[in-house]
Amino acid sequence: MAPFISIRGVGKSYDTFKALEGIDLDIAEGEVVCIIGPSGSGKSTLVRCVNLLEQYGPGEISVGGIPVRAGKELAAVRAEVGMVFQSFNLFPHLSVKRNVMLAPMRTRRLDEKTAEARAMALIKRVGIAEQADKYPGQLSGGQQQRVAIARALAMEPKALLFDEPTSALDPEMVGEVLDVMRALAHTGVTMIVVTHEMGFARQVADRVVVMVEGRIIESGTPDEVFDHPKQQRTQDFLKAVLAH
Amino acid sequence: MDIVKTFFNGPVFLESLPLLLTGLWVTVQLGVASIIAGLIVGLVVALLRIYGPPPAAVPAKIYIDVFRSIPILVLLILVYYALPFVGIRLSSFWAAWMALTLVSGAYTAEIFRAGIEAIPRGQFEASHALGLGYRHMMVDVILPQAVRIVIPPLTNNCINVIKDTALASVVAMPDLLKQATQAQALAANPTPLIGAALIYIILLWPLVALVSRLERKFKAGTR
Are A92 and A74 in contact (CB under 8 A)? Predict the structure, then answer.
């Protein structure tokens, strides 16, 4: 079966600095891939290229057979791919419910009633039904991130990109967000998760990809990567993050 | 001669009131015309400054800096007394309008620029990621937030423009202040000046109060 997301020979440089180099990664529909690695290794840059929040070149990324390039088809790609950011990026002037309703109403032309019903179902699913009429600023970080997940789901995406979704959270709120993500992983949605949560990656990922200095140095099942890493640099990285 | 008779002389005030009101009308016309033109100039210049290519952005920046540095009174005198030497002769109203617009446009441009640039990049990225088109992104996400940021300083600027219309009396424009000084001379009594001051306050106080209210509201609102 053709991969749902295909990343072929992708690179990206700022002046002389190579942020990404020779990235090849195929992701099947429904697969959950966690990308780990030291900070500055290009993990975030890579997921941001998948919906073209970052320009890339050389190379080719496609989603559902559609090349990810500036132009008319970009809207189709972005409709298929939801994104959850480290800093939530909720719309502060809209209520929780309105945050979730906005994109379906504007791009899918849903009427207000349908959009509201769907939004409420999603808000309930991420466990914050009682906050629906509040504004983002009135919620905790964990709650905000769960709203952001509901907002991404409202577009009924086939794939979800998570860019360090728990890195900006207080430690006691990490769990509630990971729980929502864990539940999502079982629904068959394709997920690419950039994360520092090794426990989550080990438990939930179908495949773990290790990036260092803009390259993929190792990839495999959680068992292979965490218990039998082949690369010295993977071992060093794991030792450093698992030490404390 | 006691203070009340000198500064708060009822009969003198009533006698000068029609003159003051014609002056007020001129002041309002000049203020509104300058504010509207200043808003248009400011928005265009701000967009050029932020999104324009260097040949447009650099002149926009120079315009903003120059007209924020020059005193309006100096600019007004230049426009009214110096431009005729190069063949441009403006009436006192349009000379004042031009000076006020040029300065207000520069301040307004900075206000708009600050408003747009204050919207975090993440708001644009979230809109892109959700597949919102440029129009929906601006209308539903960016501008509603920018307007909240921009309205209090814009209202402040309006207050300044209306106050600065009084400078136009220097080039003999029959605005509120000019009429008041005229009436003062006629009546040999400064009461009309006090009257003019009161009228300015009555005109501007609601705007000042509005700014405070908006600032409080937006602060308490969503964040």
Answer: no
